[in-house]
Design goal:
The complex is a heterodimer of chains A (210) and B (225).
Chain A: H1 8-11, H2 20-46, E1 70-76, H3 81-87, H4 89-97, E2 102-105, E3 115-120, E4 127-136, E5 142-150, H5 157-171, H6 200-208
Parallel strand pairs in A: 1-2, 1-3, 3-5
Antiparallel strand pairs in A: 4-5
Helix pairs in contact in A: 4-5
Chain B: H1 4-42, H2 45-52, E1 56-60, H3 66-72, E2 75-89, E3 96-107, E4 116-121, H4 129-133, E5 142-148, E6 170-173, E7 179-183, E8 187-190, E9 195-197
The chains are: A alpha/beta (210), B alpha+beta (225).
């Protein structure tokens, strides 16, 4: 059911008796408002909303949709103990923010592990982190993903957490989108803001894997 | 209480709205039909190449100019991908890279021009090398901004010497900006960042260019996404 909020002047009756000119003006305004409201209602209902949802999953700017909500993860390489919890923040956050996604740490990385969190220590690599889906199933869903977190490029704890949130978001299929940790490049390059959470619309997509 | 004239006006409004929506909708359908025709007409191996990299993303600091990116790189080359061979494997045995063998046509930064450069790449879905090779016909121009790939001392790999002849250095793109493909019809692809730019020659994103062409968005100077 779509509800349209009418302008105040349409929803309230005027107590004061209006002058003639004012009456004509307000009637015209009322007609315009009704037409606009109906247009909004109709166009919203029948027109395709191409590109209207930047928080979608899949596509060229998104990760591959995962095969299920069960996100088992393992650690590849040795993260310094000072950053370990920042590195796995993304898994815990996805578990917390979404409904059905749940993270489970497994000791050994095997072919059935969903996400491999990999330590990178490459100061010349101009990347904070990376995501790749290593294994697709016949439906094109991701069976196993690997993410990297590149230590020399991540100075502060909020950078670790933000990139962990970003790359883990791709393992949930999330696409690059503003005002969240899924912002392209990993942080907002115009404001230098690093986000730690998903947008509510991301969460809705995570919850249905759609 | 609404009057009958109110309902009449509302009905007229609804009619106008439906007509407008229908008109706009059919315009949009027309556009998308044209677009799909265009896509089909331009369909070639580079379209598949673009799709091949879906499922790979890096978050990174974009360089503001080709010059700046070259400064971050150990080697900048142009040429073609003449072979794709099996690369190194992580010691957990779960991820295998491939190596692009690049026949160097023009080397832009180092004093000694190598004949071939070996570039380690991650391909989503762990596609086998022969499958990847299909998307790189010999006449497809490519350019790479490269750094030396991490050694076995820096990452845990099973087969350190894989992916190139003995003694040859192994490279990797410095960032998603470090791999460009010149596609037919004057298009330029940036496969690792999933972007395509019309009417840009590959030479425009290479040194000594001190800035990217206007159509190649430099983040922070207009993108802001």
């Amino acid at each position: 059911m779509v509800s349209v909020e009418l302008p105040e002047e349409l929803s309230k009756r005027s107590i004061r008796r209006p002058r003639k000119g004012m009456l004509r003006q307000s009637a015209a305004r009322r007609r315009i408002a009704v037409v606009l409201a109906l247009m909004a209602l109709v166009t919203g209902a029948v027109m395709p909303s191409a590109g209207a949802d930047p928080y979608n999953i899949g596509g060229s700017e998104g990760g591959r949709v995962p095969d299920n909500w069960d996100h088992t993860f393992c650690i590849s390489g040795t993260f310094p103990s000072s950053v370990f919890w920042h590195a796995v923040y993304g898994m815990a956050n996805m578990d917390d923010q979404s409904g059905p996604f749940y993270d489970t740490h497994v000791g050994n990385c095997t072919s059935t592990t969903d996400v491999i969190i990999t330590y990178a220590n490459d100061s010349s690599w101009s990347a904070y982190g990376q995501y790749v889906c290593d294994d697709f199933n016949s439906a094109g869903e991701c069976e196993q993903a690997r993410i990297w977190l590149n230590d020399p490029r991540l100075t502060y704890d909020y950078q670790w957490k933000s990139i962990s949130c970003h790359e883990t978001g791709h393992t949930g299929g999330l696409t690059h989108s503003p005002n969240s940790c899924m912002t392209k490049y990993g942080y907002d390059v115009t404001t230098a803001y690093w986000f730690l959470l998903y947008h509510q619309d991301h969460v809705n997509h995570l919850n249905c894997r759609c | 209480m609404p009057t009958s004239s109110y309902f009449r006006r509302a009905a007229i409004g609804l009619g106008v709205a439906l007509a407008t929506a229908g008109g706009l909708s059919s315009c949009q359908q027309g556009d998308s039909a044209d677009q799909s025709k265009e896509v089909v007409a331009e369909s070639d191996t580079t379209e598949d190449l673009k799709q091949m990299f879906e499922g790979l993303h890096a978050s990174y600091d974009p360089a503001p100019s080709p010059d700046a990116l070259a400064e971050q790189s150990d080697l900048v080359v142009s040429g073609s991908v003449v072979d794709v061979i099996p690369g190194r494997t992580y010691d957990d045995g779960l991820s295998r890279t491939v190596t692009f063998v690049v026949q160097v046509g023009d080397e832009l930064t180092a004093a000694d021009q190598p004949e071939q450069a070996y570039v380690e790449m991650w391909i989503p879905g762990s596609l086998p090398p022969e499958e990847v090779q299909r998307y790189f016909p010999p006449d497809l121009p490519v350019s790479f901004f490269l750094i030396e790939a991490p050694t076995a001392e820096e990452i845990s790999v099973d087969d350190e010497r894989a992916g190139r002849p003995e003694g040859a250095p192994l490279y990797m793109p410095v960032s998603p900006q470090g791999f460009w493909v010149g596609a037919p019809q004057g298009r330029l692809l940036m496969p690792l960042d999933h972007q395509e730019f019309p009417d840009v020659d590959i030479s425009e994103v290479l040194p000594p260019a001190s800035e990217y062409p206007p159509s190649v968005l430099v983040p922070g100077e207009g993108d802001g996404k």
